[in-house]
Amino acid sequence: MLYSDEPDFQNDSVAVLRRDIPWDIYQTARLITDRDLQLLRRFDKKDPAFQAKLLDESGASYMEAFLTVLKNVTKDETVQYVLAMVEELLTVVPGRARMFHAIDVTGGGSPLDVYQILLRLLHRNDWFTQEKACLLLTEVLASRPDKAALCVGAPSAAENGASSSSAAAPAADEVQKAAATFIDWLCAQLRRPSHPARSVPTAVHALSRLLREQPLRAMLHRAGGVQLLAPLVAMPPAGNGQLNIQLLYEATLCTWELSFHRAAADVLCGSTNVVGALVDMVRQAKKEKLVRVALMALKNLITVGPMSLEYAVVEKGLPKAVSNRSLQHWDDSDIPELLGWMEEHLQEGIATLSSFERYKKELLAGQLTWAPMHESGTFWRDNSEKLVDNNCQLLRVLLKLLETSRDSTTLAVGCHDLAQIVTHIAHGRGIVSELRGKELVMRLMMHPDPDVQSQALKCVQKVLLSKDKSDFLTPLRQLGTHLADPFGDLPPQLARRVVITGLGLVTPLGVGVATVWERLLAGATGVRKLEAADLPEAHRLVLPQLPCQVVACVPQDELAAVPWAAQEDPRRTARFMSYALTAAAEALQDSGWHPETAEQRRATGVAIGAGMSSTADMAEAGVLLAEGKLRRLSPYFVPKTLVNMAAGAVSIKYGLQGPNHAVATACATGAHALGDAFSMIRRGDADVMLAGGTESCVDAVALAGFSRLKALSTQFNDDPAAASRPFDALRDGFVMGEGAGVVVMEELGHAMRRGATMYAEVRGYGMSGDAHHITQPPADGGGAQLAMLRALARAGLAAEQVCYINAHATSTPQGDDIEQRAIAAVFGADSSPAVSSTKGATGHLLGAAGAVEAIFSLLALRHGIAPPTVNLTSPDPALLAGLVAGTPCRLPSGPRAVLSNSFGFGGTNAALVFATAPCWGGLNVLAPQHFVYTLPPAALHNPAEPPDSGGDSENDATALLAKRTVVRVVGNNRTKQSLIGQTCVVKRAVGLGGWHWLQVLSTGEEVKLQRNALEDMSEEEEEEQRRQQHQRQQQVASGWGFPVEPAEPHAEDRPRPPRRPSSVPPQPRYDDLAGRTRVHSSRSSAQPRINLNKLQTTSLKRYGAVYQLAAAEEASRDQLLDAVTEHFATQEVDESEVIACFLSAVKRHRMGLPR
């Protein structure tokens, strides 16, 4: 783009102006008026001097005639002719653009909006028209008489009134809208040029003209155009063609103009590419105008930017370039003045940079002293960030000094420096703690030197209460006031990172995360016909009267079959509470978190909400009261109908003494519960939270109530599977559903310390209120937009970084339409990420919807697949390009971010942002992969990629190997060199980052490696390795006197089902073979705990073979039990050693090792 290899468009304009335009035909077709025809005939093809005279006399009338042609005539030749003619007039006298604002139509007709006419021309197919319209619109917008129209607070059309004599003059809001649309079009040209050679120069030229005004700079910053201009400022390498000096100059001029806008200047200061390009321009440019504008831009950026910017320009060699340029002769008098200012201002940066270089040299030499820079607050404020650059290289050197040095001065200065780093770096405490800095300093608190002790104590205090996790509530101090507070400062507020480590689901699609996710991707639906058995017995008489005859109920047979299902008395526990208990049990088992100590229970809380609790119990109580049967009212009526009892039941069952919180915000309940739990962990109220939503209100009361609101689907009673159809043209309401979703949230450090696996990090949480209507959102979705924008802002992410949105769309005609508009406003309609609504498969779970759909978003993030929108065949309106219809959509590989929306009655909105979990040393900490669900490439649709764009490599890289698979070790960055090239057999594998437990065939050693360190072997190689292994086993066993049989799967190799809920009483144990099946210790009279009767016969035979018990191979099971029991008794094995002894013998036998 920076080289002038473009065609000569000036010649095209000359050719266009030679055309003869039939103005009479347009007048006959009523496209122009008789007056317009007279003006055009009088002006066209005349001498330039005569044309100038006509414009001086009545220029506004001629401009009005030109606009009329551009507005009504669509023929390309005529439009191009008029644009070329107007451009020629403005080239001679640019001030003639003001004539467009002087058009007077008081004599009749409608106002001609010059902005809308020219904006429409920007979207025509030919580039000539686009370019000329862009240049004309630039001049018209820049020459408008009312410069205040773009400022905040400019009067609107209503405030302007109708008294203006120029009825064509657009109101302030119209000008603002036109300017914003034009800025967006210019950014689009920079992002995806319409013309390969002319789009970028034209857009940059227009911006250099427009950015003279502050409001337009703000518009460009909001549109993301600052980042688009940065690559255009770079000086290209020499020898690649003729340099386009004008483009480079105008791009740099735009940079200078943007430096006057603080937000845009911050973006430019944060881009080292822009700063480096400006320095290169000062050093290399030959044109004086390039040097001048580069110096002006640098001056502004250095003035408003941070101190680190001065260091950056010093490091890039600006002082030397300024010194060399000062020796040259300049025709432009501004350049020597700018060079003098720059040379004087950079002296402080050079001195400070020299201080850091001295500190770096001192640190690398391993000998720290009390030099002045160590105690300079300015030095640490300006240089602390440099110590954590390049993967904290210098900080690691400092910590190594604290660990190994024996010099007291070095240790004292090192502790002081570490405290300064923690104080001045935003996340200093987390970085230092993860690098074991806190342990090193606490050890130095016992050092014999008192100076080291003092500095170590101060450092530990800073580490424990540092700014990275503390947002000190001292606004009065920041304002400089000095109030006497009798109670002292408030305690610090933590701001910690939160991750998801466990999931649990109970939905109409099934029970269990793996089952539900597989059915969701397969396009299944949980919506079915409403049956009498679905309703409470007292409600079944009104079944035929209900307008809606479709529901989405939890399959009770599947719920009863899962081993972690809650076994609660239905007389005491409402169904929504049981669903929450079941989902919580699966989530805890999935996360591996089972708090046992009092400290762990106090650090674990619950935040589970419900939208409507148990409406069936309320209806039943109402009937009893109406019939006068007060004494038949259950004493558990109140506990069963309280919204917080789901959270209370989970807390009581597991003894969790952390925050016990419940949310009731209608259909946004689940999302708000997750967001509140996220906030609780961030501020330190808990380390672990069980969060989610639950609902069970499939009864006549709820169905009748929502039917009266006209909210339920009634047109698909004969075809229930097609009733829930979000975004589809045939949607007529939502389908009532029930279920629960619970996640385990943990503080990042807590999860890493216990080795937990992570599905994702909770990055952002946004809330808002519509303040519009009790059930309907505003037409533009303003509340939903605000929630999404707040979530993205809190997450620190741009809209372009989100690859999937799980929409709240419930299948209602208005709600789905408004949500599409809200998403399009935030993310863009044409460039929106993948968007789907899973309510087509699950129905609307009301209070549980937000939590269940958040889990679906987490699974989409984890597996790289966006679930489909079931029954979506004809989107109406089709506003979003990323809508995922009937087939799943593959998401981009690499780090991902997803967003989940939830909106509720009363105008409450919530949005959650999840992102790929953090990683250490380049190794991602991945969540367990419950199953491998691979879709054929043909079944996947990605709106951003061609259908044959290939699969997602992440699932292939983490696919688990089957048991007994023979593999070869190829190694990764965590593999011992001695293992590379070895042949192993897979014993078991789990989805914890693709870990496999293997046995090395040559040595019998057991090792644990990841999937990417293993290579599959061919069938011939595998068979040969198995044959050699069998021969080695036979040779080893020949001295034992019995053959070796293939080993059956051991108990530790088989998948273990989740632990049954603790509410189920333990089954009694009986001594079927008294005196023989239980192991009694000769050293203790305590009750025995080891039941040998539960061991497999093969394991008993192995034990007998190892210890050479009589007739181990031919004996029956009863004889083996007698022999093993007697052996334990004669050896006087302590009860605590029985299991270790037994498993050791069996393990060594299975590995082919001697006893």
Provide a descriptive summary of the structure in words.
The protein is an alpha+beta fold and 1155 residues long. It is built from 46 helices and 22 strands. The strands form 5 sheets. Strands 1, 2, 5, 6, 7, 8, 9, 10, 11, 14 and 15 form an 11-stranded mixed β-sheet that branches. It has a 5-stranded antiparallel β-sheet with strand order 21-20-19-18-22, covered by helices on one side. The protein has a two-stranded antiparallel sheet with strand order 3-4. Helix 16 packs parallel to helix 19 (334-345), helix 22 (389-404) runs antiparallel to helix 23 (408-424) and helix 44 (1097-1106) packs across helix 45. The longest helix has 25 residues, at 48-72. The termini are far apart. The relative contact order is 0.05. Residues 1-10, 105-110, 156-169, 466-484, 920-958 and 1036-1089 have low confidence and may be disordered.
What topology emerges from the helices and strands here?
Blueprint: H1 9-17, H2 23-28, H3 34-43, H4 48-72, H5 76-92, H6 114-121, H7 127-142, H8 157-160, H9 172-191, H10 199-210, H11 214-222, H12 225-229, H13 245-258, H14 262-270, H15 272-284, H16 288-304, H17 307-315, H18 318-326, H19 334-345, H20 347-365, H21 377-383, H22 389-404, H23 408-424, H24 428-434, H25 437-444, H26 450-464, H27 475-478, E1 498-507, E2 510-511, H28 513-521, E3 528-529, E4 550-551, H29 556-561, H30 575-591, H31 598-602, E5 604-610, H32 615-626, H33 637-641, H34 645-654, E6 660-661, H35 669-682, E7 688-695, H36 700-708, E8 739-747, H37 748-753, E9 760-769, H38 782-795, E10 804-806, H39 813-827, E11 834-836, H40 839-842, H41 849-863, E12 865-866, E13 889-890, E14 897-904, E15 908-915, E16 919-920, E17 923-924, H42 953-957, E18 966-969, E19 983-989, E20 995-1000, E21 1006-1010, E22 1014-1016, H43 1019-1037, H44 1097-1106, H45 1117-1131, H46 1138-1150
Parallel strand pairs: 5-6, 5-7, 10-11, 10-14
Antiparallel strand pairs: 1-2, 1-8, 1-9, 3-4, 7-8, 9-15, 12-13, 14-15, 16-17, 18-19, 18-22, 19-20, 20-21
Helix pairs in contact: 1-5, 3-4, 4-5, 5-7, 6-7, 7-10, 9-10, 10-13, 13-16, 14-16, 15-16, 15-18, 16-19, 17-20, 18-19, 22-23, 23-26, 25-26, 30-34, 35-41, 38-39, 44-45, 44-46
